[in-house]
Specification:
The complex is a heterodimer of chains A (532) and B (333). In chain A, helix 4 runs parallel beside helix 6. Chain A is globular. Chain A has 3 domains: 2-148, Orthogonal Bundle (DNA ligase i, domain 1); 211-405, D-amino Acid Aminotransferase, Chain A, domain 1; 409-527, Nucleic acid-binding proteins (OB fold (Dihydrolipoamide Acetyltransferase, E2P), Beta Barrel). By secondary structure, chain A is of the alpha+beta class. Chain A starts with a helix and ends in a 5-residue tail after the last helix. Chain B has 333 residues and is of the alpha/beta class. Chain B has 2 domains: 8-143 and 282-330, Metallo-beta-lactamase, Chain A, CATH 3.60.15.10; 149-277, Rossmann fold, CATH 3.40.50. Helix content of chain B is 22%, strand content 24%. Chain B has a 7-stranded mixed β-sheet with strand order 7-8-9-10-11-18-19, covered by helices on one side. Chain B has a 6-stranded mixed β-sheet with strand order 1-2-3-4-5-6, with no helix packed on it. In chain B, strand 7 and strand 8 form a beta hairpin. The longest helix of chain B has 18 residues, at 149-166. The relative contact order of chain B is 0.15. Classes of the chains: A alpha+beta (532), B alpha/beta (333). At the A-B interface, helix 5 and helix 6 of A face helix 5 and helix 7 of B.
Chain lengths: 532, 333
Amino acid sequence: MQRFVALFESLDRTTKTNAKLEALVAYFRAAEPADAAWAVYFLTGQRLKRLVGTRELREWTAEFSGLPPWLVEDSYEHVGDLAETMALLAPEPGPATDTFALPRLHELVEAKIRPLSGMQDDARKASVFEQWRQLPVTARFLYNKMITGALRVGVSKRLVTRALAQLAGVDPGLTAHRLMGDWQPTPESYRSLLLAEGEGGHDHATPYPFFLASPLEDPPETLGPASQWRAEWKWDGIRAQLIRRSGETILWSRGEERLDGRFPEIEHAAAGLPDGTVIDGEIMAWRGQTPLPFSLLQTRIGRKKPGAKTLENAPAVLIAFDLLEVEGRDLRPRPLRERLELLLDVVEAAGPEVRTSEAVAFDDWNALPELRASSRARGVEGLMLKHVDSSYQVGRRRGDWWKWKVRPYTFDGVLLYAQPGHGRRSGLFTDYTFAVHAGDELVPVAKAYSGLKQAEIDELDRWIRNHTRERFGPVRSVEPMHVFELAFEGIARSKRHKSGIALRFPRIHRWRRDLAVDDADRLADLERLIGD
Amino acid sequence: MNPPNLLLPDAGGLYCPAGDFWIDPLKPVDRAITTHAHADHARSGSGDYHTATDNLPVLATRIGEAAPHHGHDWGRPFDLGDVRVTLFPAGHIFGSSWVRIESDHGTWGVSGDFKRAPDPTCAAFRPAPVDVWLTECTFGLPVYRWPSPAQVVDEILDWWRECRAAGRPAVLFCYALGKAQRLLAELSRHADETVWLHGAMRPLVDAYREAGVEMLPTRLVSEAPKGVKFAGELVLAPPSAAGSTWMRRFPGHSAGFVSGWMRIRGNRRRRGYDRGFVMSDHADWPALLETVSDMGARRVITIHGNGEALAGYLRDQAMAAESWNLRASLGGS
């Protein structure tokens, strides 16, 4: 893993995208396929699951470093990254290990890391301690990352894709496609990533890369003639790709998780589709003619085998809005209007749980704002605007697909708790909890950690340190004094929260220095928004 | 039974009632003992200053000479009120001291800031026995362990070489008093090129030079002819210059920061530095512990920084230890 450590160091030592790209290309050019395959795996954000828990890692760190557990906790709170904390706390390997040659990356992962999942506790600890004793600090940090979770090192999956595409001499869209789905970190898979265009194929389960819309910031009339655009409702569900190939139905989420078995009614309906069909759409909870709130769909997400009661309470459908493949033919380069015509034909063969939705009819741009304003009443997030001649592209490309969401809800909340952030924000108080008034009390309703400028974060961090009332582990309660405007997308009743409500995607809009605590909203103001 | 405290937090520093003086006060007082010239220890406006003889020129550069400055040689006691004061070198920056106070109620030591790693610009920390040791605790967590300065200097030289090969300016951020001069002195053992300075660095570099510290030759960036792009040149600048329009003079530069804080990856990434070099003028965790032991103190009080963890750790080792917050003695925010 000498090369991988060097790659990590060069990625970590620059903030410039081009320098990172160069480092990746140089690494992939030189690395052995067996090692490079694992590098792709980790750098694209995949992780080996259930090897070592974070609680174990803390306990073992205390034992290994000879420090009291509370001091390991304090150190972790300060560093903000457990793998790094451990790497920093353990003594450096002594001179006896100077001759120790770093193992190859694939050897380390396949012979030392993957087997951890099947070991007894004592054996796992012994194996981890063995690596800690041998690996120098940077390798130890990377090892800790690989055994506990994702390796985030300041490169995106997209950048790794670009580097591989550059090396293979193919379009990054093809490389993105090759990396989709259950990509396996084997030398063979790695070699097939580097094939020229037209060489090699895809596994029948491999989904296409999703085409993502960009948020529309300018008024829609800036897009040109309205007749060239199709409007659709923006459904508030789970974006999914339905594949029907080789007599099998495969359902992928946009996060590239296989959803097989979770939505049996959709799979059942899809069984009638001809082989070589791929549909892009949105999974929605749906009854009769009406979409159900996202909170109901949420009851389905975690269930691998939903029971009869769950299926009855939150019946699901796939709203099909694009056709990517028909009769095994890749339709993505064809214009949207053509794909949609074919989609209407194809969906005929499926059951009612796979359905199309009609376009939102509008004659000119002036009609759209009013339609958009009706989104909440219809249970949708807003409008999608798609150019009728648009091809189906890879990832988030501006120009042909836009999302024009309804404006979010907002409320004014009081900062009540803060805790340090992680990664780039480690050591700063950046994770906040906000409350609203309920009688004489302040009741927490939302956690949020984005939306402030760095200068504001720094200022708030200093203030929090000087105005801490109590500490609960890493969490501090502060004097109720600062009011923030928060935005959110939806609200539902919740038994799990003291406030009785749960907000969807809360985030900080701005610091309302002009407001005092008394000016913050009341719980009743939020409850009124629940549409049940 | 503990005797009464010889010192107590006041005016952002420590007050000694028996000697009627303050150590490193942040507010003007009648009589101050100043351990060193950093702004969080030395402030203008006090009536009278006592400091190490070596520190006189640096202190004058920083706070002016409106009030009398009394220089004292290291290891030579002087009396203030009912106590006897001795300054010893602290190894932090040129002219920095720790303060020993002997009284009928025992002997107390106040660290100011200190380090134990070698530094060509200043006298090494000299331990002496005390009953109570008030230790700075800027890096008071076990994650802070410094690599050897020689290794870090090599890393900096390698980075400078890489920048030169790529034709990019190498902009190295560091504190203007202490770290900048330490780097110039360390680098002078391996290089002889002229280093470019941000204007804020100049008076202090001059003060060190006049005191006889050997350093690389320097020139001000503002003296460079128009159009110079500083390709492959090393530029020293204070952290406050990062992100300012001044940085436009160095197109395509690589930015490094020399500080103990760079031990933590998140600190570097958050500030957007390309490279972090772990070199500090403060004691790391092992040096804090080593010094507690070298001073032979029966009681330890942590001041400045992350003190709770060190005090807690010492208490776990059955020592008397507590943490004092000197800033809180300022009142208000």
